[in-house]
Amino acid sequence: MLGDSADRFAHVVDTFERVRKLYGFRRIEVPVFEATAVFARSLGESTDVVAKEMYSFEDRGGDSLTLRPEFTAGIARAYITEGWQQYAPLKVATHGPLFRYERPQKGRYRQFHQIDAEIIGAAEPLADVELLCFADQLLKELGINDGVTLTLNTLGDAQSRDAWRAALVAHFEGHRDALSEDSVDRLARNPLRILDSKDPRDKAVVDAAPGIDAYLSDEAAAFFDKVTSGLDAAGVAWERNARLVRGLDYYRHTAFEFVTDRLGAQGTVLGGGRYDGLIENMGGPVTPAVGWAAGIERLGMLLDHIQSDALDVAFIPMGEAAEKVAVRILSELRRSGLVCEMGYRGNIKKRMQRANDARAKFAVIIGDDELAEDVAIVRNLQTGVQTKQPIEHLGQIPFSLLDGMSLGRAVDATGSIVDLLTGDQAPQ
User: What is the residue range of the signal peptide feature (predicted)?
Assistant: First the structure.
C-alpha cells in the first residue's frame, strides 16, 4: 500500500484507535500464529476456513502451526492461558493482519487486515448494546454510515437454539431433493448455514423454513428485547433479519451484521455476535463473551477521498552551507510539533513544485544571498506572499500561529511581530 490506499488504511486505524478509547477498550496484541488446534477447536473442524482456507505448516519441532485466520480464537486462548480472567469483564480491541487461502475478491486479500473488539466475561445484554454502539459510532465517524444498515437477530440460549436446530433439520430433511449439493452437505455438518445459502435452488426451501422466534425461551426473548431497547435508547438504527445465523454451536443470543450494497453485491462491512460457549469449548471456564470484527480494506474502500497529511513547512536550501543551517532549523521545528520536509536535490523550481504537490503551507528558502544577510525567505504558499525572517528565529515560530493561515507570524530580531502575509508590523 502506498499513497491513497495507505492513507485510507491509516485513517480507518486512527479512527478506530480514537473511538475505542472513548469506550474504554484496552489495546492488546496477540500472536500472528497459534497452534493449529486453537483454530480447529474454535472454528470447527468441518468449516470451510479450517478445511480449505487456513495457512498451516509444521515447525522444526514437528508441531502444527497456523497463521491466524481471525482474531477471536487467539484472544480466547490468551484469556485462558495468560490469567486474564482476573480482569473480567474485559473490554479489549486490536487490529492487524489475518491470512486465508481463498479466492481473492473485491476488498478481500489472502493477507488482509481487520479491526476487532471484544467484551469477555459479561453476560449482560448491555455488553451487546455497548459493542454495537461502538461499531455504529465508528462507522459514523468514518463517514461511511450512509447506505450501511445494522441487521440483527437472536440465536436464543442453548435450549432455544437446540430446539430451532432440530426443527430446521426436520424441515430440510423433508425437502432434501430440492436442496443444492452444498446445502445437502451442510445438512449433515452445519444445518443452520443453509439459511445463508445464495444458491437460487435453495431459496424456496429456505423461505419456508421455521424461524427462531417460535422456539425462544422466555429468558432468551427477554435478552433480545433488552438489546433492541438499548439500541433504541442509544439512537442506533437497526433492522431485524430473522435469517441471520452463526453456524457454530457456541454462538448464543445476539448475531449482527452491518451490511451495504455500495461495493456491488450486498456485503458485510462489520459483523459479530455473542459466543458464550467458545471459551468453555476451548477448555477454559464458562465465560460469556461478545465481539465484532471488520475488514480495514473494505472500510477504506467506502471512504470518501482521503487527503494525505499536509506539510507545515517545506525547506528549500540551495548549497551545502544552506543545508547545514536548514537541518538545524528543521530539527527545532519538528521538536516543536511541526511537519517539515527538506528536498535533497533539484533546482529551486522543481523543489517548489514538490512543496506545492505536498500541500505545504509555507516554503522556507535559504541560499548564499540569504546566508550573507542571515535571513531566510518565508513564502506563504496559499497566498504567494513572502517575507524575509531572521534565521535565528525560524526555529521559534509557534505551531498554533503558523498553522492559522491568517495569523502566520514569527518573532523578529527586535521582538515585534511581523505578519508573514503582509510584512506589516503589528502591535504585540
Answer: none
